[in-house]
């Protein structure tokens, strides 16, 4: 995928990218480039106290983050909901986590069901990816509206057409019992069907 190679190259060089996911447009940066990560916060006007979620290509990349995968988390990862519009919060093993996750006690990770984004992630490793919108606002469905809303311009943007405005569902599997922390594209019934 030439487009994936171009986007991945930009990210690996410290760029910030807007790209389509299987839910909304995402604003992505490599965690290995702190200046790029800082730009995500600026572009979104996101409070610095709110950690950015992570996207990964597969369960192996998640394990390499030092994620403590609970039984509920393991069941979700093995289910038909992954890859897909499901973000899972895991506990973190500080001794195994990379330096860019220092200070966190949990990490929210998603494996997106989007061929372009998955290929980018295979090339870059895990990325910090958040919805491409001003903090507190709905995520626009078109790339043009995304770029109009951001406070500045990313280094690269890929037009994936009109997307959903519905985010992924966030399930905290560090909590016992597990809890849905954000309603989204996957219904509570579908989550419960896997975990009950």
Overall mean pLDDT stands at: 96
- Looking at CATH, the homologous superfamily of the largest domain is DHBP synthase
Unreliable runs, pLDDT <50, ≥5 residues?
A: none
Going by CATH, the architecture of the largest domain would be Alpha-Beta Complex
Tally of helical segments: 7
What form results from the Cα inertia axes? globular
Our Rg estimate from Cα atoms comes to 16 Å
Structural class by SSE content: alpha/beta
Strand content of the residues, in percent? Answer: 15-25%
Please name the defining characteristics of this protein.
single chain, 196 residues, alpha/beta, DHBP synthase, 2 domains, ten-stranded mixed beta sheet, 7 helices, 10 strands, 30% helix, globular
């Amino acid at each position: 995928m030439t487009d994936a190679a171009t986007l991945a190259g930009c990210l690996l060089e410290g760029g910030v990218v807007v790209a389509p996911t299987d839910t909304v447009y995402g604003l992505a940066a490599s965690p290995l480039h702190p200046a790029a990560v800082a730009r995500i916060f600026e572009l979104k006007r996101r409070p610095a106290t709110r950690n950015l979620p992570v996207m990964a290509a597969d369960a192996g990349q998640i394990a390499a983050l030092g994620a403590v995968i609970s039984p509920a988390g393991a069941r979700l990862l093995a289910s038909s909901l992954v890859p897909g519009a499901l973000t899972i919060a895991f506990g973190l093993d500080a001794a195994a986590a990379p330096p860019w996750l220092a200070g966190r006690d949990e990490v929210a990770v998603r494996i997106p069901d989007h061929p372009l984004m998955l290929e980018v992630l295979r090339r870059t490793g895990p990325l910090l990816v958040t919805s491409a919108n001003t903090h507190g606002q709905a995520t626009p469905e078109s790339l043009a509206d995304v770029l109009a809303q951001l406070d500045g311009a990313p280094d690269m943007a890929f037009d994936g057409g009109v997307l959903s405005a519905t985010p992924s569902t966030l399930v905290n599997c560090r909590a016992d019992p597990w809890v849905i922390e954000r309603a989204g594209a996957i219904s509570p019934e579908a989550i419960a069907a896997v975990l009950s």
